[in-house]
Design a protein that fits this description.
- By secondary structure, this protein is an alpha+beta fold.
- Helices cover 43% and strands 15% of the residues.
- It contains six helices and three strands, in the order αβαββαααα.
- Strands 1-2-3 form a three-stranded mixed sheet, covered by helices on one side.
- Helix 1 runs parallel beside helix 2.
- The longest helix is centred in the C-terminal third of the chain and has 18 residues.
- It is globular and about 55 Å long.
């Protein structure tokens, strides 16, 4: 947890506003990574049981939210977890291993890492997004062309030949 937040902090050039959910692990991780150089708040969701009379698996109902400023001066207009929740939804719909009650997983960490890397490569370099009309990598000027699966194969072959040398 701490290394991921530190990695994010190291990649940012300017002060940012950050919102996390109510997981207490984020408190120390954000403070360690950013110190006081962040406007940080937690958005704590309050859940209640769904009582519809049916006995089945279903997530609890969100009854409301409380925003808690933690470090700096977060702007209440921008305290939201919507972006990451949308990203989580995208990951769950594009990768079977992240859906609920799924058996689409691997016990090997290296297989999981490969699947995640392939998914993000496809999402950022191959898939043209409707709102952008290009890939995210093209929109960010990381590349000037649309990549395809043969580019992944070429990258893998280059990495393998580098290992062999």
């Amino acid at each position: 947890m701490r290394s991921s937040v530190s990695d994010v902090a190291d990649r940012l050039a300017h002060r940012v506003q950050l919102t996390t959910d109510g997981n207490k692990l984020y408190l120390g991780a954000v403070e360690d990574a950013f110190g006081g150089d962040v406007d940080y708040s937690m958005l704590v969701k309050i859940y209640g049981a769904v009582n519809d009379g049916k006995r089945r698996y279903s997530p609890a109902k969100c009854l409301g939210c409380v925003d808690l400023p933690v470090i700096g001066d977060p702007d209440p207009k921008h305290i939201s977890t919507s972006y990451v929740e949308r990203q989580n939804w995208t990951v769950r719909t594009t990768m079977r291993r992240y859906t609920r009650l799924s058996n689409g997983f691997s016990r090997k960490l290296t297989n999981h890492e490969a699947a995640v890397a392939l998914n993000y490569f496809g999402y950022n370099f191959i898939k043209i997004h409707r709102t952008l009309r290009v890939t995210p990598a093209m929109a960010a000027n990381v590349t000037d062309r649309l990549l395809d699966v043969s580019d992944i194969v070429a990258l893998l072959e280059a990495a393998e030949s580098k290992k062999a040398a």
